[in-house]
Amino acid sequence: xxxxxxxxxxxxxxxxxxxxxxxxxxxxxxxxxxxIGIRNPRFLTWSNFHDILIDxxxxxxxxxxxxxxxxxxxxxxxxxxxLALTGMxxxxxxxxxxxxxxxxxxxxxxxxxxxxxxxxxLIVAQGRVxxxxxxxxxxxxxxxxxxxISGGKWINAYEMPDSFKEMATGRWLGLSKLIYxxxxxxxxxxxxxxxxxxxxxxxxxxxxxxxxxxxxxxxxFITWLVYTISGALSGLAGVxxxxxxxxxxxxxxxxxxxxxxxxxxxxxxxxxxxxxTMSGVxxxxxxVGIINNALPMVKVSPFWKMALQGLIIxxxxxVNIAISQNMxxxxxxxxxx
Amino acid sequence: MVGTExxxxxxxxxISKFFPGLKALDRVDFDLRVGEIHxxxxxxxxxxxxxxxxxxxxHQPDEGDIFYEGSKVVFNNPTVANRYxxxxxxxxxxxxxxxxxxxxxxxxxxxxxxxxxxxMWKEMRQDAKRLLHSLGSDISxxxxxxxxxxxxxxxxxxAKALSVNARILIMDEPTASLxxxxxxxxxxxxxxxxxxxxxIIFISHRFEDIYEIADRVTVLRDGKSMGTxxxxxxxxxxxxxxxxxxxxxQLFPKNTVPFGKELLKVExxxxxxxxxxxxxxxxxxxxxxxxxxVGSGRTEVAQSIFGIAPADKGKIIVEGREVLIKNxxxxxxxxxxxxxxxxxxxxxxxxxxxxxxxxxSIIDQLTNRGWLNPPQEYEISSKMLELLQIKAPGxxxxxxxxxGGNQQKVVVAKLLAAHPKILIMDEPTKGVDVGAKAAIHxxxxxxxxxxxGIIMISSEMPEILGMSDTIIVMHEGRIMGVxxxxxxxxxxxxEAAVKVNRLTQAQVIx
Lengths: 337, 510
Known about the structure:
The structure holds two protein chains of two kinds. Helices cover 76% and strands 1% of the residues of chain A. Chain A is mainly alpha-helical.
């Protein structure tokens, strides 16, 4: 037995596997599209695909925020409530001041969400409260505030100016304006996580917090930052959501946080931290969008839809475990005892 | 070979470090010359790790001074060590497993575009490649860390040290999990760095390492420095004597009892990556002591027999019947009891009462049609409390309120309540005071006299020598020697534990 292969390193093989994992999602998307297309040809039309993209817009934006939190080894359950609260405030504002521009509203959503997220971030980073508990509490608190400020009332479509709703219905070069917002978010964060020092530090903290501290990374700041970002993106998604559905409700996006986690997991983000890519969460979000869109089109009952969604996530998780166990095993074999 | 004779880069003078109830370092002197490889050796718990942590700024000394190039310095946090260009490579690299090689090397000091603040990946990758190349390695800079072998990860850690122009490199048992070939590569790297003027502190259990590459060697024992020698001036035998040379006190009485029938026989037990070809036999009344260094595979063997992490190969025969043990429940059903090393995490339910802890593993036998039988539970617990002389106000007090030694006794009580025939005890007296230690040893001796077979894992030489009828020494997952009580000496055991059997190594590689 020659010892050459160990020099080459398993790195090459692993990279193929990593590539394969994202390829796996693409293949899955293609297969399910073909299967659904056979049963209902309308699924494969451009206009339906465009609909899927619009429906997935908010989810795609939210997944980026959730991914960054998951990469540090945390979780942000408060995203759905930040979304609802910001959406409600935005709705109330455009109802009072119809002249406010959509661009202003989106910026406001980002800032307001960022503020709400930074409070959660402080509690986790400085208060050392376990992320799931801290964000669960904030989820209830922000949801509660939504009810308080709205007095339990909805903002309906007719109360919103057309300029605001046009954000979702309006098109630019044939594509919904929402899609451009998603594009901007992904371009910005692609650069941020891959090409800035702070972006990479997020991954370092999630991969090995102690080692990160030793090389001089401010782990508390990074922790605070990811919750602030996820808050900001939730706020942005809140404005998009209210514009898209032309209504701001108290129970907007209630329970939606699990869908965000599902999109991340499908996209290969590790719940235990350290792993997650922008292309992965985008594909994960689109996959969730397709499942949501396609299953009703082939007349699958809503009950089955949820169960199938769960089954698909489960399969993705099992594949994750299988790959990591396989790697661990081959690592041990190299120790040659 | 030896570096610049009287130029010291680092000097530690009279360093002491106290932990609650423990003097980890006691007025230790240590110095490091420019461009030398200085080995530190010592038994488990001799203070090597504490010394390293003081040099890297993780711990601060309670007494003594540190001098860097002749001037007094204070290493009060880990980032200070970075500033003084001190880098460490650990046995298990403390890196970022999910990130790439390039990032692991440069994350603490990235190359950033001065205007745009963009990370300059191309430059960093090229630098990483150059550094790795200078170490004779062709690891891809874009491979993720967890895709590399331990040896490769260590090379990356060394590259990281080079990237900050480390002047002091600490290597903490770097060869412990390497193959022969990888070890030789590491030797060459260390020698090359020494040639470049880097000073290396090399910690190892393997004498082979020390005689191969070190210039000087310092021996630590029980937190004290036993002296520093030029490697060429000290024989292996004298080195071993310096490491272990303490008197054995008579704290450990195991009464000799006639052995009964064979209770447990293990044949060719192997688990990939942990241990290989383990065979031994345990008789009633016998205590077998497993000696060897931390990480030699002793605990893993015990956990295999108890079904926590089953072996891949080999036979386990309990009272003449071959059995397949896949989980602890099955092991318990065959009459095997296991006392884990980490009693707080694996042995006790701290918030629960003494009674609950003792009876929890036999609760099935105490129930009547699903209903618990408290009076019977209390009876058993009270009996155990008396038998093991557990000092507690009563059986309803939470275990968390007891002292370490008494907690340990509760774990033993829990085991005994299940009436085991075979007891596996991993470091049974770790972290308990002298009195409790003697009591636990007395209990073990009594149990053996009653016909139990005991497997004891211990890192304490006196305990091994005093308590065991038979001593098995393990090293790197293999049995390196079996000694009867009468023929065993500290020197013989240490020799077996640190010497690498060249034959086995050769077999591994082919």
